[in-house]
Description:
Layout: H1 7-28, E1 32-36, H2 56-59, E2 71-74, E3 81-85, H3 100-103, E4 107-111, H4 114-121, E5 127-130, E6 143-144, H5 147-157, H6 162-187, H7 192-202, E7 215-218, E8 240-245, E9 248-249, E10 252-253, E11 256-261, H8 265-282, H9 291-308, H10 316-321, H11 325-328, E12 376-379, E13 382-384, H12 387-395, H13 404-410, E14 415-417, E15 420-424, E16 429-431, H14 432-440
Parallel strand pairs: 1-5, 3-4, 5-6
Antiparallel strand pairs: 1-2, 2-3, 7-8, 8-11, 9-10, 12-15, 13-14, 15-16
The structure holds glycine and manganese (II) ion (MN) (2 copies).
Residues 212, 244, 255, 380, 419 line the site of glycine.
Amino acid sequence: xxxxxxxxxxxxxxxxxxxxxxxxxxxxxxxxxxxxxxxxxxxxxxxxxxxxxxxxxxxxxxxxxxxxxxxxxxxxxxxxxxxxxxxxxxxxxxxxxxxxxxxxxxxxxxxxxxxxxxxxxxxxxxxxxxxxxxxxxxxxxxxxxxxxxxxxxxxxxxxxxxxxxxxxxxxxxxxxxxxxxxxxxxxxxxxxxxxxxxxxxxxxxxxxxxxxxxxxxxxxxxxxxxxxxxxxxxxxxxxxxxxxxxxxxxxxxxxxxxxxxxxxxxxxxxxxxxxxxxxxxxxxxxxxxxxxxxxxxxxxxxxxxxxxxxxxxxxxxxxxxxxxxxxxxxxxxxxxxxxxxxxxxxxxxxxxxxxxxxxxxxxxxxxxxxxxxxxxxxxxxxxxxxxxxxxxxxxxxxxxxxxxxxxxxxxxxxxxxxxxxxxxxxxxxxxxxxxxxxxxx
Length: 441
Ligand code: GLY
Ligand code: MN
Ligand code: MN
């Protein structure tokens, strides 16, 4: 897997990051801040670790994804320091000191263990610590994860630098390449495990290197929103595949979903109609748009589709108003995408905090902010046949507005989700995902 960051954009990224972090420190009464990459967590009573995921606030500074117990120390006006963990360890391969252009932006100091890091950092004064707090309470930091500082930094993370967008673009290229291989495995009749393996082999990654465990759902599995099983045996019948899987580049993820019909023409038509809905929604993305409005527009478009396909018997407006559309689309339209797949700050009202409320009846929406240039979001409308939600609907007032024969016809296909990653511009957006698929073909 490639992990080299686009060096030429990194300096500008770091300068901007230093400026905004300096302002946040000033505003919250701190003079410096230390970011920790995180520690290894060992399985109880044994000495092998859970997969390591470096802390996002640390990765914003340094594209180091695989080395625990590193620190970035930043004080405005000084060159940032990178304390790089180089233990004496003959059980594991010790990582080499980072090289390359990005690393030259830092004062790099190897440290052999946490005691050496503590001595080198000598925390005191008004220095804040940000990271997994475990074990840092008595190091002498003025504050550990102070909420006012975190909120300011989280709020600013929504707007990505050109460096970050370049990384997200690369993550989409990797993801698209893997998705094409997965689609081929599905067409060949492979199992969920076989399809996931083809996905990972195409970009030479192991599962723990993916930004999240891939969702590879055949047939009814597509109705489980975060389906986590990888069946080893192919089903007797291939009807549909819903695959939600990403890839990482320099710590930045893609988050891509595609749904395929195996051979059924009616389901293929429904997937095609959902693709049109998704593209119409993408066309509405630009700076200044309130994401909540777009989410409600998605519900209207999907309700129209449900009506056109004979799945519901009331018009779109009534279906959205009464919550009927939410039976078929119970998740949000999308979320901020960044160092975390579900990136931070999606509902923050301002750098000082506060929450922008979700529309009534839409508790799962993760993004309620007005879009700005540099935001990167996912656009992921869905339409599902979820047993438990349909059963409650049938028992309640929605029951008579649903055509149950039509539902029974589509339920064996599970559901549909189509998800792209969009970088917002002043006048529209760059669809990182479609562009990645386009340049492959
Ligand atoms: N892959 C999880 C999501 O789409 O939000
Ligand atoms: Mn996804
Ligand atoms: Mn997503």
